[in-house]
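Trying the structure run again after the queue cleared.
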Amino acid sequence: MTSPLSTAEEAHKAVADRLTRMMEDADLSGARLAALCGWDRSKTHRIINRKTIPKPADIRAWCTACGRPEEAEALIDTTRTAKTLYVQWTQYLKGGLSKAQRNGIYQETRSFRVYSCGVLPGMLQTEAYARGILRTIRRFRSLPDDVEDAVQARLERSDATLRSNQVSVLIEESALYMPMTDRPQHAEQLEHFLSVIGRPNLAFGIIPHMSRRPVWPLESFYAFDDREVQVETLTAMVRVTNRAEVGAYLSAFVQLGRAAAYGSQAKALIRRALDAIGA
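Done. Tokens:
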């Protein structure tokens, strides 16, 4: 598996490489280009080496200095796109938890694949479990309290997703033993899993503790059709859109699915976790 950051890095590298080639084609040194752009020559080297992401004004100045002003807007668009591929949670959630639940990609997707190594998948969460995890997120990230609105938005999104789409979910058995709410609410969530297993548009698999691992441990991720994977890290939400990288995640999902238990076997694992919670 490649790094989930590499799609964004690849875009920034493409911009830096094009600016470098443009400077070379214009037969300009870094010092000369800096003089034409009106900045210190160290800035030129920082942009070339991707230590600094150029601002739109920087790109326009660079392209003009090289006699290629017509290329500026395309490079600016590439840089802007790259910034959307790696978004820190502080930025992503600045509009609140409720707004974050209304991500348009859910309406545009017909096939969802979800792998979770910890938090139980959002689209299958009960109201109580969703409230518990969203409260935890709000506290951890010191966000304004719009939890109740966010809970309703999440439930509405989940209902719409499950009503008419194909959903495949894989969770690690260990996730069944990680309460993100009080135990009664966590038990209710596991009971809910028992009730949805067997739905015709839902493939629900649990990867047992001791199953032979076809892929090393991964971060939790959501795959939207075959075009985008979203990976949730502690500090950021990473969008993977590079075709090869998306393919790698989908391949890993398939291989992990072969190690999972389904149907009655999955229900047995859930009931074992319910027994442990009640102990």
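The chain has 13 helices and seven strands. Worth checking whether this holds up in the mutant runs.
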